[in-house]
């Protein structure tokens, strides 16, 4: 598995649209890229945002990053972003998930 980390700021007055349009954008992303396993939108204390997406593999994450602008709902959602703070992918080398915890 791989995690995609995308840091950004939002255009003035666009936060509500960013959040409201998020479910449709994620649904379109998942339809186009089956390797997308989960997505978490977070807001940091300084007002910036961090989008965290879990992918089945790093290769699928990198392919999606190259092609995501071809998904209309994603391209429209990106229009709410004022500035990108960068995109990076990290490999998951160990994981724990309460839903799959067999130690209980």
From TrEMBL:
Segments crossing the lipid bilayer: none
Keywords, in A-Z order: Monooxygenase, Oxidoreductase
Molecular-function GO terms, alphabetical: monooxygenase activity
Family matches, as Gene3D superfamilies: 3.30.70.100
Domain (ABM) ranges: 1-63
InterPro entries found in the cross-reference section: ABM_dom, Dimeric_a/b-barrel
Protein name: Antibiotic biosynthesis monooxygenase
Organism: Allokutzneria oryzae
């Amino acid at each position: 598995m791989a995690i995609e980390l995308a840091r950004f700021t939002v255009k003035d007055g666009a936060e509500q649209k960013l959040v409201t349009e998020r479910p449709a954008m994620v649904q379109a992303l998942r339809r186009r890229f089956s390797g997308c396993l989960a997505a978490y939108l977070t807001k940091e204390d300084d007002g910036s945002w961090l989008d965290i997406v879990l992918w089945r593999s790093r290769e699928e994450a990198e392919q999606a990053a190259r092609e995501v602008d071809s998904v209309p709902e994603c391209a429209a959602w990106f229009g709410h972003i004022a500035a990108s703070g960068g995109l990076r992918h990290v490999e998951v080398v160990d994981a724990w998930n309460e839903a799959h915890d067999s130690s209980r």
